[in-house]
Amino acid sequence: MKYKYVEKRIPRIDARDKVTGKTLYSTDRYPEGMLRARVLRSALPHAKIIKLDVSKARELAGVEAVLTHEDVPGHNGFGIVTPNWPVLCVDRVKYRGDAIALVAAVDEETAEEALSLIEVEYEPLPIIDSPEESLSPDAPLIHEDGNILHTMDIPPKGDVEKGLAESEIVLEQTYKTQFMEHAYIETEGGVGVYNEDDGVVTIWCGSQYAFRDQLQIARSLDWEPEKIRVIGSPTGGAFGGKDEISVQIHLAMLAIYTKKPVRLHWSREESIVAGPKRHAMTASFRIGAGHDGVFRAIDVKVVANGGAYDTISGPVLNLALESSPGPYKYADSRFKGITAYTNNAMGGEFRGFGAPQVVFGVEQELDKLARKLQMDPIELRLLNAVEEGDISAIGHRLNTSAGIKETLVAAAATSLWKDRDEIKHKLSGENRYREYGIGVASEWHAVGMGVGIPDFSNIIIEIGEGGAITLRTGAIEMGQGNLTAYAQMLAEVLECDISAIDVIHGDTTACPDSGSVTASRSILVNGNAIIDGVSILKPILIKIASEKLGIPEDELEYGDGRVFSRNDSGIALTLADIADQAISSSRSLKVTGHAVIAISDKDFGDGLPHNYYTYITQIALVGVDTGTGEVEVIKVISIPEMGRAINIDGVEGQCEGSVVMGQGYTLYENIIVEKGEFKTTSFSTYILPTALDVPEHETIIVEKPEKTGPFGAKGVGEAPTVPIIPAIANAIYDAVGIRLEKLPITPEYVMEKLREG
């Protein structure tokens, strides 16, 4: 089927305002009389608070508020899953980012001076530096109920030990990954304003789910949610890091207390120390196969570093386990995981949601197996890849589109793969100090929240004077381009001009609850809600036109942005005509669309498993300097299957950005925390890829429309971040014959491995 807007390259509807600087982000707001806020954070990673004295700070001229835990009227805690992360610490700190007191003053300098006047006396406590230390029998307790944050054992499939014993080849290896920083350009920040007249506090902030922010603020204030307005758009980058509370509750407390506008904007160092990170994990694999290359058994154990509190560590571990076998069939499988509390960096939500840490390992093991069998790595994957209707490695039936084979076939057909030996030989001849390699890796990535977790969307469509169309959604735009895709889908199904559509988003007062912008779910669920809304709207349009034209409703039809007579298409009313007619008769053309994501046929608990997956294969060409260990990523091909692409430019943009993010995670980025102390607190020591490091990139979109998705779409936001990591590692092996079992793959690590031979 040919579409007018869907599956096209449509310019982003918010692009002009962003590139011209017209867009206002949360911390671009400077209301008259605004105060500046700062947060006093712990000086130690683990300690009792013996004394807290804020009297001197309160006496400083220009200080309007100094708040402590005693000023938290409701629940002193937040957290997406378990609200045990203190708003302000009471008698103990558990990591260096812990908040102890808030200050609001007339300017930044005064606020900073006030912080220095707050006296805190600590009694140091033992520091738990790793999950292994945390889980030891004699470890000091970080929480009263123990140091285990979460465990997950997916019900085993078959007999793993028997399957491994009967396998002709068994591979076994442990892989380690590091903490990773989100590194968004816009650090956490916002503005709070309290209106005494209506008793409403309004928070502008970088967010991924304004409605959950609203509920968490309400819980800590002990207020009705209706008295709290959160405006979470636009957001300058998030990648999962802004799905949790950062400044929201603190802003609300200070604005209400001072009755003045308050601005709180974290510094880069504060963002790195206090904000959540990609979990550091250790993943151990045992994989059994036959000489024919057929996978027989897989056994996976994952240990994750959750940090001091539980924000969303459980679901991250669960998805890591679900992702760990990849999109392949195994007769026997077992997946076990545990997340431990530590006094290190906070583990939280991050693009890929646990998958990068495990796919790094499993896809290298498959590369090893292919080489051991002297098989083409793509052929090995094709031999074992799942199809729709198969039983997955984790034991549930795949009832939605599964295009992993199509991505592998497309990968095998690329010249980068077909001509890889010639390409490497040519490059090696041009540079005698470098060796070149080409690697491949694949992944399946869950879409949606999973079984047992509410996964819904509500949207509002309203047609106003002159046929102006407004779409209202709680789904926040955080740089990924969703607003344009929503407008495309609405324009397609309503058969109207996309330029007539205005999208209002991320405001708890102006928009309905559309769920969190996370889990690569937004296109799927919001798209279906838009289609549902239009299905409700069209009969209303026909009814109004019937009254105006004097023609029975069953003789009218909606199409091409108008209602027309089936008997004479020249007799018609446009959307503008119908809207003006409705307004003149005091009627509203406003409907609410709703959608819920379908769930799997199994329920393993805690959101497992998922019903929808995006499938992707990526190929990487790298050069390795054998004298320095430096790795250059030269070219990447991303081949995603996300059902159907709503916006071609958007899919390519997601793939390009994901590749650079995955490249950074693989080669450079590392939040180093030793005994609870951060050694990397700025971008001078936390190394990010720059424009000079970005490889040539090609996206090949494979479409396999999903029957229950809007226009066949699923989602693509996270998947391209994942297999690029092992693809680079496999390419390094192809170049210089070394296996890398930990991230990041620094030049020093490469040289160490080269020396080992």
Quick structural overview:
By secondary structure, the chain is of the alpha+beta class. The protein contains 20 helices and 30 strands.
Distance between the termini: 56 Å
How many discrete domains?
3
Overall morphology = globular
What percent of the residues sit in helical stretches (DSSP H or I)? 25-40%
The appropriate CATH architecture of the largest domain is 2-Layer Sandwich
Features:
Aldehyde Oxidoreductase, domain 4, 29% helix, 757 residues, Aldehyde Oxidoreductase, domain 3, alpha+beta
What does this entry look like structurally?
It is a single chain. The protein is of the alpha+beta class. The chain folds into three domains: 26-125 and 188-265, Aldehyde oxidase/xanthine dehydrogenase, a/b hammerhead (Aldehyde Oxidoreductase, domain 3); 277-450 and 602-756, Aldehyde Oxidoreductase, domain 4, CATH 3.30.365.10; 456-596, Aldehyde Oxidoreductase, domain 4. It is 29% helix and 25% strand. It is built from 20 helices and 30 strands. The protein has a seven-stranded mixed β-sheet, with helices on both faces. The longest helix is centred in the last third of the chain and has 28 residues, at 522-549. It is globular. The termini are far apart.
Write the SSE topology.
Blueprint: H1 15-19, E1 35-41, E2 47-53, H2 55-59, E3 63-67, E4 92-93, E5 99-105, H3 108-117, E6 119-124, H4 131-134, E7 148-157, H5 160-166, E8 169-176, E9 189-195, E10 200-205, H6 210-221, E11 228-231, H7 248-258, E12 262-265, H8 268-274, E13 277-278, E14 281-289, E15 295-307, H9 313-323, E16 332-341, E17 347-348, H10 355-373, H11 377-384, H12 404-412, H13 415-418, H14 420-430, E18 434-447, E19 456-463, E20 469-473, H15 482-494, E21 501-505, H16 522-549, E22 556-559, E23 562-565, E24 572-574, H17 575-584, E25 590-596, E26 612-625, E27 631-641, H18 648-667, E28 673-674, E29 677-678, E30 696-699, H19 724-736, H20 747-756
Parallel strand pairs: 1-12, 10-11, 13-17, 15-16, 20-21, 27-30
Antiparallel strand pairs: 1-5, 2-4, 2-6, 3-5, 7-16, 8-14, 9-10, 9-12, 14-15, 18-26, 19-20, 19-25, 22-23, 23-24, 26-27, 28-29
Helix pairs in contact: 6-7, 9-10, 10-19, 11-12, 15-16, 16-17, 18-19
